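Lab notebook, bench 4. The sequencing result for the construct came back, and we need a structural model before the next group meeting so we can plan mutations. Quick request posted to the team channel:

Model the 3D structure of this chain.
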Amino acid sequence: MEGFEGLERRIVSCEKCPRLVAYRKRVAEVKVRRFRDWDYWGKPVPGFGDPKAELLIIGLAPAAHGANRTGRMFTGDSSGEWLFRALYETGFSNMPRGVSRDDGLKLTNAYVTAVVRCAPPKNLPTKDEIRNCLPYLKAELSLLKRLKLVVTLGRIAFDTYTRLLGLRLKFGHNRLYEFGDSPSLLASYHPSRQNTQTGRLKWDEWIAVFRRARELLG
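Done. Here's the predicted structure in token form:
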């Protein structure tokens, strides 16, 4: 059976979606002024974390100048700053901030991934692009043998994961669904700037999700 290393190689070499391939490569070549000295990753981004994790966090996709630059999910953008701070404050991360793949950040009992592995234009993947990436999420779910709780960040991640379960559930921030012996599901707003800077998602509401996750896992 394929392990995490084999899956990572498969993800990084993926070119299933021509639109996403062209976009992520163009962003990596053009860059932005504040990161002009960076050697952008510019490839699909694999998940990362503890292979024995009980907690899985599913986001939407790499940010163009975040994970598409650094090569690690949620690393190098404002969403990641919120995520890693919350994971640190609830004991899932050894550091409150991630800046690069080699910064020493490690997750304990948590694994972070996304529905789509390439940065999409305007952060909006198409239905076909989501469908093309689903085998990678399915593979991660099968590899995380100790999984007890899934936290989805945003409506697209929630809807994608619940479709994998064959269910239609109502999305709501900090809403919990339990499924007996199967991993529970905890929904959250995505910590995007659109949500955090407008006040739709406040820090107290955000950290409450991960405090609840910690309580559920014991």
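The radius of gyration is 16 Å.
Will bring this to the meeting.
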